[in-house]
Amino acid sequence: MIFFPNAKINIGLFITSRRGDGYHNLESVFHPIGLSDILEIKERTHREPFFATTGIPLDAECKENLCYKAYKLISKHYNIPPVSFHLHKIIPPGSGLGGGSSDAAFTLKALNSLFKLEGDRDELMEMAMQLGSDCPFFIENSPAYVWEKGNQMENFDPQLKGQYIAVVVPQVHISTSHAYQGITPRQRPLPLKELMQQTPFDQWAEYITNDFEAPAFKEKPQLEEIKHSLYQEGAWFASLSGSGSAVYGLFSRPSNLTDDFGHSFVWEGKL
């Protein structure tokens, strides 16, 4: 069976407080986009699962990959045979687009379907949470308002259907831990969900922000340059996604990017 684990963008990201467990509470809106990896899973006659990757090279050993971890996790709950995985990696790792989390969640859903395990939504969500804070989002894979560590969510559609998106990912690395050091958590007068509901699209750029942008732009000025370029190309909203290196722009028409982004990864699609 072949699946297409898709990416997501963060629309707004507010860091609201530091938790006692060392993590941070946040608010964001996750929105799926069409940029996807390709994941093939087949039952295997051998004793051990087999994992292979193509596309963008991955640094981690196969047993550290979230697809493999998802297989081992679901195997604790159900008696399933070994499988072979072939992951063709297209979503840039470390970009803030949730590619690894999506791969993991889609692995859970794929195995549930392939072996007719009849795991319900809540069970899959619980297993996904054990793999990472962003993973549960990809179980339902629809726009959602998220809070706390990003693990609490509810359906929330910002009504972007029909809009166009361009994503630019330069070849730079953003240290998430370093980025958090540059942020002072603070509560906003309105929760992000209410702010988005009350703010017209043409004012999002003024009110909907990503707290990681300031430290990221200071560390990697080319990210800010990309954001400005997207606005120059006609985006009505542009932002860093998550704490990664991807910058996206939302457009009311196809973007037809003309700017030279060097060796950056560039993807364009429709929401």
Question: What tags apply to this protein structure?
Answer:
271 residues; alpha+beta; Ribosomal Protein S5, domain 2; Alpha-Beta Plaits; four-stranded mixed β-sheet; four-stranded antiparallel β-sheet; 12 strands; 29% helix; globular
Task: Give an overview in words.
With 271 residues, the chain is α+β, with helices and mostly antiparallel strands. It has two domains: 154 residues, Ribosomal Protein S5, domain 2 (2-Layer Sandwich), CATH 3.30.230; 107 residues, Alpha-Beta Plaits (2-Layer Sandwich), CATH 3.30.70. It contains nine helices and twelve strands. The strands form three sheets. A four-stranded mixed beta sheet has the order 1-4-6-5, with helices on one face. Strands 2-3-7-8 form a four-stranded antiparallel beta sheet. Helix 2 packs antiparallel against helix 3. The longest helix has 16 residues. The radius of gyration is 19 Å and the shape is globular. The model has no long low-confidence stretch (mean pLDDT 92).
Q: List the uncertain runs.
A: none
- Share of helical residues: 25-40%
How many discrete domains? 2
Can you tell me the CATH class of the largest domain? Alpha Beta
N→C terminal distance: 25 Å
Percentage of residues in strands: 25-35%
Major β-sheet, in short? 4 strands, mixed
Mean pLDDT: 92
The general outline is globular
Number of DSSP strands? Answer: 12
Q: Would you tell me the structural class of the helices and strands?
A: alpha+beta
Number of distinct helices: 9
Strand order of the largest sheet: 1-4-6-5
- The CATH architecture category of the largest domain equals 2-Layer Sandwich
CATH topology of the largest domain: Ribosomal Protein S5, domain 2
Following the backbone from N to C, one meets helices and strands in this order, namely: EEEEEHEHHHEEEHHHHHEEE
Structural Rg: 19 Å
